[in-house]
């Protein structure tokens, strides 16, 4: 009994000391484990890491990653594509930016350009940092209108369109008309009777939105952490193919304190890797049990991270880390673990189910008379027999990145 108590205390102390290693290891995406452990091995001579997915052979089990999955993942890692930042950086040179000062400011502006190509910085702060007037910074930002891809460096969609418009070789009447439309895009339908509207529409259709759309990263190659099959039984299998093989070597017979410390660190890492597997397995088992209806073709039920944390005996923040960047593959597809957590609208009705319903309804709506948010409220109330307020439906619609009924009507007109 005393030995057991000592062992438990020792284990707890070991875990506390390893907490800084454990939490990042729990949070790391499956495909980054190899890199993470190789970094550890550079600092620890007793730790050897072999990339499991490079050497493992797949069998016929439906649970295992296919050769195509592995090939796709490796190709995705190995092909380099020029980024939007590389493209812009290569153009920060004379004659557009002839002086060291102009190049310095341009590089600072580049730092504040987001992945879509829009400028998100503060002109005054850049001016202070570069010790120049704010008018000079704005002048340099305007020069970005001549950089490819045209439209980058703009504050927003309208300015990006103006940058792109300025580069076109079109007649003055059409240029001025398109400029007027850009300044009032929300009310584009008011210009539909203009004799140059069709010409303007064809030009605007060719504008890139966002301006860096060609450089936006492809969807990351998703590697499922677990495979789930649900029929008469629930079967869950970890995707071991992408876990690194860890070997702890111990070549020394006599050890000083420093060697002992490194050996312990290496063994702790092996234990923590196994702890990650068992923790994620328990987490996914609870998710599958709670959302069993989804896995047999129905909708998600209300489920919060707080509930799962309580059941597993963890802090909610730990569950949030565990869920981050993790995926499961099942008969319905591959899903992020975050997808399975959804708030309750009523006892057995989740917000996810209502959002799915709104999406289906809007997809089939009359293009001449799109459903207003109030229409959607009434339809949801009738279908699910729940009280609902319009602001909640509006929030769900915005979360679905769905324009309002008026904006959808304009979009439908443009498409026609």
Gist?
This protein has helices at 2-17, 19-27, 33-43, 52-55, 67-78, 84-89, 100-111, 123-130, 134-143, 157-166, 172-182, 197-205, 257-290, 292-295, 305-312, 316-323, 351-363, 373-384, 390-399, 405-415; strands at 47-50, 226-230, 234-238, 245-248, 327-330, 333-336, 344-346, 349-350. With 416 residues, it is an alpha+beta fold. The chain has a 4-stranded mixed sheet with strand order 3-2-5-6, with helices on one face. It has a two-stranded antiparallel ribbon with strand order 1-4. A two-stranded antiparallel ribbon has the order 7-8.
Question: Could you please describe the fold and organization of this structure?
Answer:
By secondary structure, this protein is an alpha+beta fold. It folds into three domains: 21-65 and 225-340, no CATH class; 84-215, no CATH class; 345-415, Orthogonal Bundle (Arc Repressor Mutant, subunit A). The chain is 52% helix and 7% strand. It is built from 20 helices and eight strands. The protein has helices at residues 2-17, 19-27, 33-43, 52-55, 67-78, 84-89, 100-111, 123-130, 134-143, 157-166, 172-182, 197-205, 257-290, 292-295, 305-312, 316-323, 351-363, 373-384, 390-399, 405-415, and strands at 47-50, 226-230, 234-238, 245-248, 327-330, 333-336, 344-346, 349-350. The strands form three sheets. The chain has a four-stranded mixed beta sheet with strand order 3-2-5-6, covered by helices on one side. Strands 1-4 form a two-stranded antiparallel ribbon. It has a two-stranded antiparallel ribbon with strand order 7-8. Helix 2 crosses helix 16 (316-323). The radius of gyration is 28 Å and the shape is flat. The N and C termini lie far apart (79 Å). Mean pLDDT is 81; it is low at 1-7, 55-62 and 73-80.
């Amino acid at each position: 009994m005393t030995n057991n108590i000592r062992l438990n205390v020792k284990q707890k102390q070991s875990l506390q000391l390893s907490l800084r290693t454990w939490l990042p290891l729990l949070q790391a995406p499956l495909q980054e484990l190899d890199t993470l452990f190789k970094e550890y091995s550079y600092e620890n001579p007793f730790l050897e890491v072999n990339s499991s997915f490079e050497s493992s052979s797949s069998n016929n089990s439906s649970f295992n990653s296919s050769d195509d999955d592995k090939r796709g993942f490796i190709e995705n890692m190995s092909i380099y594509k020029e980024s939007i930042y590389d493209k812009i950086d290569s153009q920060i040179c004379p004659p557009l930016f002839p002086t060291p000062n102009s190049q310095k400011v341009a590089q600072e502006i580049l730092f504040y350009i987001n992945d879509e190509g829009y400028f998100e910085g503060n002109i005054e702060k850049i001016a202070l940092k570069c010790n120049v007037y704010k008018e000079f910074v704005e002048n340099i930002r305007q020069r970005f209108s001549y950089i490819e891809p045209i439209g980058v460096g703009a504050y927003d969609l309208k300015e990006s369109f103006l940058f792109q418009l300025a580069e076109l070789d079109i007649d003055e009447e059409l240029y001025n008309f398109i400029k007027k439309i850009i300044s009032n895009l929300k009310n584009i339908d008011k210009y539909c009777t203009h004799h140059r509207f069709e010409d303007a529409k064809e030009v605007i259709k060719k504008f890139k939105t966002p301006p860096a759309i060609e450089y936006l990263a492809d969807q990351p190659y998703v590697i499922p952490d677990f495979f789930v099959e649900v029929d008469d039984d629930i079967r869950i299998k970890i995707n071991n193919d992408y876990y690194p093989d860890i070997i702890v070597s111990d070549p020394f017979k006599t050890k000083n304190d420093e060697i002992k410390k490194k050996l312990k660190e290496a063994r702790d890492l092996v234990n923590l890797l196994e702890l990650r597997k068992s923790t994620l397995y328990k987490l996914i088992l609870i998710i599958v049990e709670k959302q069993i209806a989804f896995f047999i073709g129905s909708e998600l039920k209300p489920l919060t991270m707080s509930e799962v944390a309580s059941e597993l005996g963890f802090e909610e923040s730990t569950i949030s880390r565990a869920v981050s960047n993790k995926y499961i593959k099942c008969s319905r597809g591959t899903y992020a673990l975050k997808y399975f957590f959804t708030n309750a609208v009523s006892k057995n009705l989740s917000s996810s189910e209502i959002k799915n319903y709104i999406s289906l309804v809007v997809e089939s709506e009359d293009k001449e008379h799109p459903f207003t948010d109030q229409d959607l409220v009434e339809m949801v109330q009738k279908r699910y027999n729940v009280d609902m307020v319009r602001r909640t439906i509006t929030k769900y619609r915005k979360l679905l990145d769905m324009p309002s009924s008026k904006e959808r009507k304009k979009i439908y007109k443009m498409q026609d």
